[in-house]
């Protein structure tokens, strides 16, 4: 696929990459921020143009287009993906429509960025991988939006691991804790309904930490053993407009059909042991993604609530002075940082979407497969499915006799 030609009045500027986005709620706004900003910060071989955004409600999508910086608004995603001025389709809808939109966009000759988790089931994810492979043969690219890979400290952790600074990996422990469901009156939004979201904390938060572990360790999770729970089984149905993370409930109660929390252990292909926790009920924890990796030669720790920092312990140093030290990942030598502010100036959550756009635009310009690919997204989906299967399997849960 050739990116749309640069317009006459901008002779000398790099060619345009027309972007179309489906969905404009929280993730749509975050991706828009990435597309709007990326060309102003990074020196890119292609210039993203925010050609059109799509949503079903005509007034709301027109408003979103104006607010988020899109040149046009569409109400039918099939019309959006057919537009000649769109080279890349960014799918920011709930999971139940990822497969249909992404596959149709690939078949229409577009590159695709799809929000995480890739799909609501392994079967859908497999279809998406097949479509991406067929499109790849035609020169199109597909990527899944696991944005936390693009936190500079996380990318730097990956570099240190690739350089062998941890030696043989022994342990991974990772938690992703939020608390927005702790209130039992929080309404039954789409994120609490299996038919839209696929799963609950598992697919929403667990998908991120599964991806991060496989990315950082550079190897797949080979098996899992899990528990999950839905603490609040019914919630008020939203009466007015609602989004996944907001809305107000009415009188009637409806069933919550996803997990509220999932807890699992796993073994990586190399034999390292891993533990995972994903919940939306950890009162006081807002967006607390913490991970630690321990290897024979050293350890790394990261906390999303302090995302400019990485803790590193070099176990080859003399014990008398060894210990965890805090690396402030704000220097031009660190991933993505040279394009931003002078040394020592911090970044935040929104920058991960700018970096995501940067990496995808570079990959499109080079014609190289970006990471994480749809195949990586499928691998995450397989782990999530194994967790659900294990959690549902009572035979593997060993009850402890009650005290007399
Ligand atoms: C809600 O739990 C949520 O917005 C997730 O859907 C995102 O993927 C995560 O980055 C922040 O929390």
From TrEMBL:
Keywords: Oxidoreductase. Residues 18-137 form the Gfo/Idh/MocA-like oxidoreductase N-terminal domain. The keyword Oxidoreductase applies. The keyword Oxidoreductase applies. InterPro entries: Gfo/Idh/MocA-like_OxRdtase_N (IPR000683), Gfo/Idh/MocA_oxidrdct_glycsds (IPR050463), GFO_IDH_MocA-like_dom (IPR055170), NAD(P)-bd_dom_sf (IPR036291). Residues 155-300 form the GFO/IDH/MocA-like oxidoreductase domain. It comes from the Bacteria. This is Gfo/Idh/MocA family oxidoreductase. It comes from Streptomyces tremellae.
């Amino acid at each position: 696929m050739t990116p749309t030609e640069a317009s006459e009045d901008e002779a000398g500027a790099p060619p345009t990459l027309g972007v179309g986005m489906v969905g404009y709620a929280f993730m749509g706004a975050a991706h828009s921020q990435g597309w709007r900003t990326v060309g102003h910060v990074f020196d890119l071989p292609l210039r993203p143009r925010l050609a059109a955004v799509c949503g079903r409600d005509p007034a709301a999508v027109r408003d979103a287009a104006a607010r988020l910086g899109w040149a046009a608004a569409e109400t039918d995603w099939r019309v959006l993906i057919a537009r000649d001025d769109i080279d890349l389709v960014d799918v920011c809808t709930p999971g139940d429509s990822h497969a249909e939109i992404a596959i149709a966009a690939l078949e229409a000759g577009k590159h695709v960025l799809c929000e995480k988790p890739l799909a609501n089931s392994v079967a859908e994810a497999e279809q998406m991988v097949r479509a991406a492979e067929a499109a790849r043969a035609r020169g199109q690219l597909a990527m899944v939006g696991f944005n936390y890979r693009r936190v500079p400290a996380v990318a730097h952790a990956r570099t240190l691991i690739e350089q062998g600074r941890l030696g043989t990996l022994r342990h991974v422990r990772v938690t992703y804790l939020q608390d927005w469901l702790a209130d039992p009156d929080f309404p039954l939004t789409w994120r609490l309904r299996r038919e839209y979201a696929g799963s609950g904390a598992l697919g929403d938060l667990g998908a991120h930490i599964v991806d991060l572990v496989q990315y950082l360790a550079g190897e797949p999770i080979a098996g899992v053993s899990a528990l999950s729970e839905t603490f609040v089984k019914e919630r008020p149905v939203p009466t007015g407009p609602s989004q996944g993370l907001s809305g107000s409930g009415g009188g009637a109660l409806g069933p919550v059909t996803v997990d509220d929390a999932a807890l699992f252990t796993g073994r990586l292909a190399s034999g390292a042991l891993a533990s995972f926790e994903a919940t939306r009920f950890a009162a006081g924890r807002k967006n607390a993604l913490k991970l630690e990796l321990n290897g024979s030669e050293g350890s790394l720790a990261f906390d999303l609530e302090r995302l400019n920092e990485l803790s590193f312990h070099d176990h080859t140093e003399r014990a008398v002075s060894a210990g965890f030290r805090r690396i402030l990942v704000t220097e031009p030598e660190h991933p993505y940082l040279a394009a931003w502010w002078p040394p020592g100036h911090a970044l935040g959550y929104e920058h991960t979407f700018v970096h995501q756009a940067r990496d995808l635009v570079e990959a499109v310009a080079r014609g190289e497969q970006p990471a994480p690919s749809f195949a990586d997204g499928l691998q995450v989906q397989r782990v999530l499915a194994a967790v659900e299967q294990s959690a549902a399997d009572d035979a593997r849960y060993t009850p402890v006799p009650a005290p007399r």
